[in-house]
Design goal:
Layout (H helix, E strand, L loop, with lengths): L1 E5 L7 H14 L4 E7 L18 E5 L2 E4 L3 H12 L7 E8 L6 H4 L1 H11 L4 E6 L13 H14 L13 E6 L9 E4 L11 E6 L5 E6 L12 H6 L2 E7 L9 H8 L1
Parallel strand pairs: 1-2, 1-5, 2-4, 5-6, 6-7, 8-11
Antiparallel strand pairs: 3-4, 7-11, 9-10
Helix pairs in contact: 1-5, 2-4
Length: 261
């Protein structure tokens, strides 16, 4: 198996080392793991692509490249430059430092990389490690992802879990903020919503008198509704959420047609 990996925390992020180990186990001795990751951190860029300016790419080692762009840029670079002679069988994005559950999903560059792969017709899985009191102080806060990541991916590679729809499925996996031994299991979950949790802006004045705004995130340990991703994670479970890039609210189509007519 040929696997392309990327992330949004940057080429030197510890989570990417974890993903490399996971991908190598999945690929096997006869497989290949290729890395195209952002040269610098790209957290929060979502599905951004560098449409108005070129992306510089540099080879660091064999099958290891850094690109000055977003995770989606990196996937495009992988498919149309680095691996153009033979496309990957699978794209993995992560392992993100912090959760990409609930509303974080909409901002996440980790998700953006997996989404771009799906739009290009490649099976893709995003992986993120929730941080909290249960794992932040561990020698390896990613140990839940490292211990359970490969088995989750192997399960998700079941052909019954994929399709060839125009907006192809991809999967969002979040590991709970607990030690690996304390993970309770795996749950299929929908995307949750943290009430009263929003990104905000905080103003500060520099020593030169200029005003700057810092974007701040909201509380990450607010429980979401039962059966959703963050709720599962905070209860000690790995969440797996099937996703598509289609943003249409199909439940509203009929009502909208009635109003418009």
């Amino acid at each position: 198996m040929r696997i392309l990996i990327t992330n949004d925390d940057g080429i030197n992020a510890p989570g990417l080392k974890v993903l490399t180990a996971i991908a190598q186990e999945i690929a096997g001795a006869d497989g290949e793991v290729w890395t195209v990751a952002p040269a610098f951190e790209q957290s929060g860029v979502g599905h951004c692509i560098s449409y108005t300016h070129p992306t510089m790419i540099a080879q660091l080692e064999e099958r290891r490249f850094a690109a000055e762009g977003s995770p989606a840029d990196c996937v495009i670079a992988g498919l149309y430059d680095v691996m153009k002679d033979k496309r990957p069988d699978l794209v993995l994005s992560g392992v993100n430092r912090g959760n990409n559950a609930a509303e974080n999903t909409l901002y996440s560059g980790t998700i953006g990389g997996a989404m771009e792969a799906a739009l290009q017709g490649i099976p893709a899985i995003a992986l993120s490690q929730y941080y909290g009191a249960g794992n932040a102080a561990l020698d390896d806060p990613f140990e839940a992802a490292l211990a359970h990541g490969a088995s989750i991916i192997k399960t998700l590679l079941d052909p019954a879990l994929w399709d060839d729809a125009n907006y192809r499925l991809f999967y969002n996996v979040n590991f709970p903020p607990v030690p690996a031994a304390d993970v309770k299991g795996v749950q299929a979950a929908s995307q949750g919503f943290r009430k009263n949790t929003n990104f905000t802006a905080e103003a500060q004045t520099s020593p030169t008198g200029r005003k700057f705004l810092w974007v701040r995130g909201g509380p990450q340990h607010e429980p979401t509704a039962p059966g959703t991703d963050a709720a599962a994670n905070l209860d000690g479970y790995i969440s797996v959420t099937p996703m598509r890039a289609d943003l249409t609210d199909y439940d509203m189509i009929a009502a909208l047609e009635d109003v418009l007519s």
